[in-house]
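Annex B. Sample input.
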Amino acid sequence: MIRHKLIIFFAFGLLALSCTEKRIRTPKAFLNTVKRDADSYVKDKDVLAHQMRELMTKHEESFYSAEYYDSTALQIDSILYSRDYKKVIVFVLTKNPIHRQLKPAMNYYWYYDAFCYLGIRQKDGFKLEWMSLFNIINFYDREKASEAIKDMYFTQFATIRDVNGEYMYKYNFDDMRFWNDPIWEKYFENNE
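Annex B, continued. Sample output.
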């Protein structure tokens, strides 16, 4: 477990170093503005919340840590859709009491974590893949955690470079061109 955390910490450090350049904002002409009708959005939120709760119960994906337990509050913060509604980007927030932290900051009652998932619609739900590049952990303000995870994927994702200094991704997640990015084939091979 400690080795796993060290690997994640090391990978995050390398990623942080690769993202130190200026943020890239999506041009207005390419901003994803696809909206879902209110009833369908609520149904999708319910399905996704149920799937996230299952991941949390099994301590899988972003919820691998024992800090997540049956009383962890889970909220689907927002869902972005492709034009055909078959692909989604999901931002999820968790809320835990401060005593669940490794080193609790006793002047707060709660702390918040935020994660991002990519999803492909299936018959009764979504096939989900955790985007572990940017995670927001140990925030003491829900709104700031929500803003921070979106800022990472909306302004910094396209700045990630590989070991050769080449950009790894062309678009941020709020760019309508992102829906055709090769990342979808990478994570959802043979699932569309």
